Amino acid sequence: MEDKILVSVITLAFNHEEYIRQCIESIVSQKTNFKFELIIHDDASTDKTADIIREYQKKYPDIVKPILQKENQYSRGGNIGERFLYPMAQGKYFAECEGDDYWCDPNKLQKQVDFLETHPEYSSCVHKCKQFNCLTNLFANSFPQVNTECDFSTEEIILGGGGLFGTNTVVYRRDSLQDMQKNFWKLSPVGDYPLALSIATKGKVHYFPDEMSVYRIFVKGSWSSRTMIGPEAYTRRLDHISKMRESLKAFDEHTEHKYTDTIQEKIDLNDFNLYWDFGKWALLKTTSHYKQRSFIGKLKALYHCISISFKKFKD
């Protein structure tokens, strides 16, 4: 085994006391023939997350490299990765796993790195991901629903966004981070989507149908819970897709309008999904995605919106 670190694993944690131990264990237990590091950032958690990280730092000093903030940095401008983690990372490749997610295959890193080492034309590789619903305490559908090994096109990645493959499934080459200074990255309200766009333009993206990670949904305080649950969910989601629209327009400029049609389709799909999820019938029927539906499809959309409105009335 060479002394040089080949992979840097990036983890963001905040008040993940309930989950962080499983996350770290799943990373340090990876079986590899190369060295890797775990750079883990705790953003001034108010629970015992930082204490658990310190515990693992003592146990795995050559792997676990914590950044423990005393003041919350997300509220002071965000850009946690760019400001703190990526400059510290030594790897040729990067992998990511949020503090409330975990990997479920000890051979994940080895399999993905082996592929990238022997296929230099690929910028990254991804895999199928399990979902765990924290509201029901049950596993939900895995994604993507693709059961054969294949490559994902740039168009598929633009349209799929964070729903095509989980960020905790990606292993990518370091040069994908060169785009972090571009407007499409800076304008995005999230980091996973511009990362996906970056790797899509740096080379081919390979997909393994193996379930090698778990993504938790509806974790308290997470994006999924804030934008789908509660009285302010619609406003937050509307603000989110407005920022995404500006980011996608900047990406269109960045790629010299090579994917304009696909980008516009994605913008329209984001609008449609927002109005669908919240039953906004008057707005839903203005989208191109709705207009392209069959007569039966339009009736189903109307019924869906009426059902949501009725449920809100009862509540």
Word description of this protein:
- Strands 1, 2, 3, 4, 5, 6, 7, 8, 9 and 10 form a ten-stranded mixed β-sheet that branches.
- The protein is built from 13 helices and ten strands.
- The longest helix has 22 residues, at 233-254.
- The protein folds into three domains: 1-100, Alpha-Beta Complex (Spore Coat Polysaccharide Biosynthesis Protein SpsA, Chain A); 104-229, Spore Coat Polysaccharide Biosynthesis Protein SpsA, Chain A, CATH 3.90.550; 230-314, no CATH class.
- It has 315 residues and is an alpha/beta fold.
- Helix 5 (154-160) runs parallel beside helix 10 and helix 9 (233-254) runs antiparallel to helix 10 (260-277).
- The chain starts with a strand and ends with a helix.
- It has helices spanning 20-28, 49-59, 80-85, 108-118, 154-160, 183-186, 192-202, 223-226, 233-254, 260-277, 281-284, 288-291, 295-314; strands at 5-13, 35-42, 64-68, 93-96, 102-103, 122-133, 138-143, 150-152, 171-173, 204-217.
- The mean pLDDT is 92.
List keywords for this structure.
315 residues, Spore Coat Polysaccharide Biosynthesis Protein SpsA, Chain A
Give the CATH class of the largest domain: Alpha Beta
Number of strands: 10
CATH superfamily of the largest domain: Spore Coat Polysaccharide Biosynthesis Protein SpsA, Chain A
Sheet with the most strands?
10 strands, mixed
Q: What is shown here, in short?
A:
With 315 residues, the chain is an alpha/beta fold.
Helices and strands in order:
Blueprint: E1 5-13, H1 20-28, E2 35-42, H2 49-59, E3 64-68, H3 80-85, E4 93-96, E5 102-103, H4 108-118, E6 122-133, E7 138-143, E8 150-152, H5 154-160, E9 171-173, H6 183-186, H7 192-202, E10 204-217, H8 223-226, H9 233-254, H10 260-277, H11 281-284, H12 288-291, H13 295-314
Parallel strand pairs: 1-2, 1-4, 2-3, 6-10
Antiparallel strand pairs: 4-9, 5-10, 6-7, 6-9, 8-10
Helix pairs in contact: 5-10, 9-10
